[in-house]
Write a structure and sequence with these properties.
Blueprint: E1 6-10, E2 26-29, E3 32-35, H1 51-61, E4 67-71, H2 75-86, E5 91-96, E6 100-105, E7 110-113, E8 115-116, E9 128-129, H3 133-146, E10 149-154, H4 167-176, H5 180-185, E11 188-193, H6 202-206, E12 209-211, H7 218-232, H8 238-247, H9 253-267, H10 272-285, E13 289-292, H11 305-320, H12 322-327, E14 335-339, H13 346-357, E15 361-364, H14 366-369, H15 376-391, E16 395-398, H16 414-431, E17 438-443, E18 461-464, H17 470-480, H18 494-506, H19 513-529, H20 537-546, H21 551-568, H22 572-577
Parallel strand pairs: 1-5, 1-10, 4-11, 4-12, 10-11, 14-17, 14-18, 15-16, 16-17
Antiparallel strand pairs: 2-3, 5-6, 6-7, 8-9, 13-15
Helix pairs in contact: 3-4, 7-8, 7-9, 9-10, 15-16, 17-18, 17-19, 18-20, 19-20
């Protein structure tokens, strides 16, 4: 007689909308998971088992851990897990705080609610549904000890990390990780969560085996593209399908499927541009990253010729000539650090670099990483790094990188320890030889960075950015007036305005590009309030006469940055050629 085995799945209502891997024995329909009644014990061929799942089950089978924490928000990963488990367990249960405890009814091909009898100690009354988490855990605890049982926990993340609401869950997990009866029965407990620290405390989580499935491999996305394209009847050749699979890098399987469906619904085909745009929206929803598609290149900015020349030689040419780089055994730069006063165009330069090499521009913002709840900041950074490497090759822009590049000097409190943990993660990522991303960081305070942060192997190029010179200031003013490039132009006396621009450019030493943009805006406001038929040099000169900057402070600041140049810039040629000229946009 076959051995009876039970699986319990404790679920998340969000993940009950879709799921299962392609061709697997489970699928989601109308919010519930259904079984293929014609082949309920079908399992995936060994070569199709994802690596993450193979490693997770190996941990359990070896006795290394009875509790697996699967960190994913992808319902298709859950489907893969269920596909894999169903051939190994005869009785399958799942639990969700909303639907309660359910069991697989193979004859009906779906899950049905588990009822408890009137004499049950779960709660009084006839045929009660097991909705209460505490009661369900106690009922499942008995099964885990009595016979081989797999318990899969889902949907137990608490808002704002209110772990006090999960006290019974935490107690149960701590008990299960060391329970002899569970070890002897070879029972399995799985917690599926996109944010495990919102379900368990750190100490409890450390007692489990944490598995982090990749978002989606290229082969998985390609298989999904092929299936979706076939069902749509779209005439796409293999090369275009592979291009789409590449364009969806950085999405999980569920997101990839949604992007393909939305694209086809709107376009009737699968254009890569719309797919990239929808992907950017998904990445932005992650709350840790943003993806942009820069429209500027080095041809669109003025100034910093020495910096551009160095980046072209050390980064762009090797990317454009990969075979020659391979013959030379030439590695790409590990990272680029831009330092200088605020408003001098460091962000614009980074965007132009991304546009120049035609790579995704991924913005890693410190404010999206650092959170007030202990443990969340480190988890956010780990999530961001995994997502970046899935998207890569990409150019990663980290503004105010000094927020990541300093250790806390106060070892006592938890917040300081977490900041040090984040620092360590960033340090490890920067030095990772397998890193596929190119990191461009900016800082206004390079001397505040930890020495370990600046060692060779983490940043290869250090570029100083100072205030724009007269020619660059002239180009910035003309651009914001719409006299060069493609910006909208006011009704203007061009000859008169150009005379004013020459005069203002000569008198605005130590102004930033942001200052000059605001100066032009104020001139436009004066023209708007006047009765003049065209904007003239009068409006510009009056705006300039009224505009003030702290020149003495900036002069002192520039001297400080000039002194820092030899300390940080690691190219003598660059130092000799550095011009204090900021980027000026030629919009188009």
């Amino acid at each position: 007689m076959a051995r009876q085995v039970t699986v319990c799945v404790v679920g998340d209502v969000r993940q009950a909308q879709h799921g299962g891997c392609l061709g697997g024995p489970f699928y989601f329909e109308d919010g519930s998971m259904a079984l293929k009644a014609n082949n309920p014990t079908a399992s995936q061929p060994a070569e199709l088992i994802p690596q993450w799942l193979d490693e997770a089950m190996a941990d359990w089978a070896s006795g290394a851990s009875t509790v697996l924490t699967i960190e994913t928000a992808d319902p298709r990963r859950e489907g893969q897990l269920i596909d894999h488990i169903i051939s190994r367990f005869d009785h399958i249960l799942r639990y969700h705080p909303w639907t309660g405890l359910e069991q697989a009814d193979r004859s009906a091909g779906r899950f049905t609610a588990v009822k408890t009898s009137a004499h049950s100690d779960y709660e009084p009354g006839l045929q009660n549904e097991c909705r209460d988490l505490g009661g369900a855990l106690r009922q499942m605890d008995r099964l885990l000890r009595q016979k081989q049982t797999a318990l899969v926990l889902r949907g137990l993340d608490r808002p704002d990390s209110r772990l006090d609401l999960n006290a019974e869950l935490i107690s149960a997990v701590r008990s299960w990780t060391v329970d002899r009866d569970i070890l002897v029965r070879k029972s399995l407990i799985c917690l599926i969560s996109p944010n495990p620290l919102c379900a368990l405390d750190q100490d409890t989580l450390n007692q489990t085996s944490v598995v982090r499935p990749e978002l989606a491999t290229f082969d998985e996305r390609l298989a999904l593209v092929r299936t979706t394209v076939k069902r749509a009847g779209a005439p796409l050749d293999e090369d275009r399908q592979r291009t789409i699979a590449l364009a969806t890098a950085g999405l999980n399987l569920h997101q990839t499927h949604n992007v393909l469906l939305k694209t086809y619904h709107v376009e009737g085909s699968f254009p890569a541009e719309r797919i990239k745009r929808l992907k950017s929206e998904y990445v932005r929803r992650s709350d840790v990253l943003e993806i942009e598609d820069p429209k500027v290149t080095f041809q669109d900015i003025g100034g910093y010729e020495a910096a551009k020349r160095l980046v072209v030689q050390e980064l762009i040419r090797p990317l454009e000539n990969p075979q020659r780089a391979k013959e030379s055994a030439l590695p790409l730069p590990r990272g680029i650090l831009l330092f200088g006063p605020p408003g001098t165009g460091k962000t614009l330069f980074a965007k132009a670099l991304a546009g120049q090499v035609n790579l995704p521009f991924v913005h890693l913002k410190p404010e999206n990483i650092f959170q007030s709840y202990l443990g969340v900041s480190g988890q956010n950074l780990a999530k961001a790094i995994r997502l970046i490497e899935d998207i890569s090759p990409a150019l990663v822009f980290v503004d105010e990188i000094d927020r990541f590049g300093r250790r806390s000097t106060d070892p006592g409190d938890g917040a300081s320890q977490e900041r040090n943990d984040v620092f360590g993660q960033m340090l490890t990522w920067l030095g990772d030889e397998g890193r596929k991303s190119i990191i461009v960081g900016t800082t206004n305070v390079p001397n505040s960075l930890d020495e370990a942060f600046l060692r060779p192997g983490r940043f290869s190029i250090f570029l100083p950015f100072l205030y724009p010179d007269e020619d660059a200031r002239r180009q910035i003013l003309l651009a914001h007036l719409g006299l060069v490039g493609g910006r909208s132009r006011p009704r203007i006396d061009e000859h008169s305005a150009r005379r004013a621009v020459d005069r203002i450019a000569a008198q605005t030493e130590l102004y930033t590009g942001a200052d000059l943009e605001l100066l032009v805006t104020r001139a436009k406001q004066r023209f708007f309030r006047s009765t003049c038929q065209a904007m003239t040099q009068v409006h510009l000169l009056e705006a300039h006469a009224d505009y003030r900057v702290a020149t003495d402070t900036r002069r002192s600041l520039e001297e400080q940055y000039r002194a820092l140049g030899p300390m940080f810039a690691n190219s003598l040629e660059l130092l000799m050629r550095t011009e204090h000229q900021a980027p000026s946009v030629s919009p188009g």
